[in-house]
Amino acid sequence: MRPSTSSSANNSAPHYDLGINPPYQINYRAKRAGKHITASKRRITFQFGFSSVDAIASGHTEAECRGEEHEIVLIWSHITGKRQLFMDGREIHMSKAARGNTKF
Description:
Elements: H1 7-10, E1 23-32, E2 41-50, H2 53-57, E3 68-77, E4 82-87, E5 90-96
Antiparallel strand pairs: 1-2, 2-3, 3-4, 4-5
């Protein structure tokens, strides 16, 4: 199969280049989130962003270079084996493993 030459093929290119506008971490949180037994569920949150190419090119630094920001949340139940993955509040993955499975 030949690679696509349409403009949609260009849309799959990453929106950042590590050498020009590297990603940055905003926050990381890991907490026990079970309703009745707190140790039965984990909620892990990653907040990160991609620096602004235009701000870096114009000589800005630090907070002035903040660009597109995202949040990834993993919710994992040790009891039911259910795992959910959210990006920017939208569920992008859900799976269910055997009961009592403690390995992701």
